[in-house]
Write a structure and sequence with these properties.
Blueprint (H helix, E strand, L loop, with lengths): L1 E6 L2 E3 L5 E9 L6 E7 L6 E6 L5 E3 L7 E6 L4 E6 L8 E10 L4 E5 L3 E5 L2
């Protein structure tokens, strides 16, 4: 089992930057694909960025060129560097760990961290 704890959220002005971090505890972090998702008020949770066990990345079109996801398997962390932030990036950001097993898919979520982009 994996426990995920996000940090780094806060209030930032448009055009600013934030770095979110997700710390994972438990066994087998390196075997999980990791991702960041977000949910704005009144909207469904959406994918922001993912990184596979092999380091391949994928981004939502809305954040391409502005956000960068990275992972450190030695530290059991996955980060999201967010630059050129916009008001529409305001949301609760969640860390996700996902693994496909022979008989099931398991995934875990953190509790979320609030990001507010406002002047």
């Amino acid at each position: 089992q994996v426990q995920l704890v996000e940090s780094g959220g806060g209030l930032v002005q448009p055009g600013g930057s934030l770095r979110l971090s997700c710390a994972a505890s438990g066994r087998g972090f390196r075997f999980y694909d990791m991702g960041w998702y977000r949910q704005a008020p009144g909207k469904e949770r959406e994918l922001v960025a993912t990184i596979t066990t092999g380091g391949s990345t994928n981004y939502a079109d809305s954040v391409k060129g502005r956000f960068t996801i990275s992972r450190d398997n030695a530290k059991n962390t996955v980060d999201l560097q967010m630059n050129s932030l916009k008001p529409e990036d305001t949301a609760v950001y969640y860390c996700n760990a996902d693994r496909i097993l022979p008989t099931a898919t398991v995934d875990y979520w953190g509790q979320g961290t609030q990001v507010t982009v406002s002047s």
